[in-house]
Amino acid sequence: MAEIFLSYRRQDSQSATGRLADDLAAHFGDERVFRDHEIAAGDDFVAAIRRSVESSTVVLVVVGPRWLAATDAGGRRRLDDPGDFVRLEIELALATRVAVVPVLVDGATMPEASALPPSIAAFARCQAVELSDKRWRFDVDTLIEALQSRFGIDAAAAVPPAAAAAPAPRSSGWAADLADLALHPRRLIARRQSGSAADHARAFAFLCGAIVFSQAMLLTTLDIDLVARGSGVDVALGIAAWLFTALLLGLLLAALLVGALALAWRIVARGAVVRRVAVVGAYVYGGVWIGVWAGFALVVVAVQLVDPSWLSGSVADLHAAMASSKPFAARPMRSFDEAPLAAGAHVLLVFAALVFAATAVWCIAAWGAFRQSLAASRAQAWLATMLWIALVAALVWLPTRL
Questions:
Q1: The predicted structure's pLDDT at residue 245
Q2: Segment (H or E) for 58
Q3: What is the separation of C-alpha 14 from the centre of its chain, rounded to a whole number of angstroms?
Q4: Taking the model in full, what pTM does it have?
């Protein structure tokens, strides 16, 4: 999906928009710039516009001299029509909190809020940029620099360094991606579905990074003796073994969950959806994994504040039970009322509950990326989700019956 969406009115600024699109595509790459003529024949135009706007990083609204007053064949102002595509694009961008940047061309000025329909009145408050025909190259370079520095949109690899306008540091792009994934997961995930092999490599790298990072975070809350004892080399090997084992188990669980989901969507959508589901599933699973283990790490710290010896004792009891093939019985933990640091433990448990709740909300929001990526209806999305739950339940239940 494209990161830059160009909204324009053909009878107002088609020429200037085409010129701008060519300049942006030359710098950022064709796949990062979207115009309505790129919608394939036979596609649902409104659905395609909705997917493209929701997945974009920024919507550039090209405003010419006749943008506000443009009328249809019956003499009615186009912006007053709820079905007007330009109005719909701005409404979608504002509703989904996609950045909106008005681009004034051919001497146009920003419209007053009172002259706009109430649903897009906020458009009048967006900071505009002006592209003058006399200084077009300078103005476009300034816009490109803003797109790179403010929105983290990287230049295409083919652009020579000398021609690039102060490219943003790569680390800032990663930071922007992570922030976008946390706040707008469907938008980021949609941008990572261009159909190239790099999409799968990035998704897999994120999944592996999420698993390793979450377990490293958990390790900071544990007594290192629970992982390894002995010399520094022994401890380092123990930590590496912990992380490697967690990575393998995490990837195995991800393969089972995402595989079951791909099967569910294949049954519902009746198409080749495995690759798209795999990319979306990797991001959703990785994000949920981080949230769950972050909350669990807070719980571990709270438990250690209440009863510092409980965790190490429970681990020792577990090892003893495994060695002797006896059933494991969890040892009782000290009451919160008896703990000197009970107040701090209660605060940490509240924070853990908030982390778990935020993770659940994020997962629900990110789950919509499956429907968006596969262009499915709500009914199909619900059916696929229910079927996936049934498949996962079967995977959990069957081993108990064997």
A1: 92
A2: strand 58-63
A3: 32
A4: 0.67
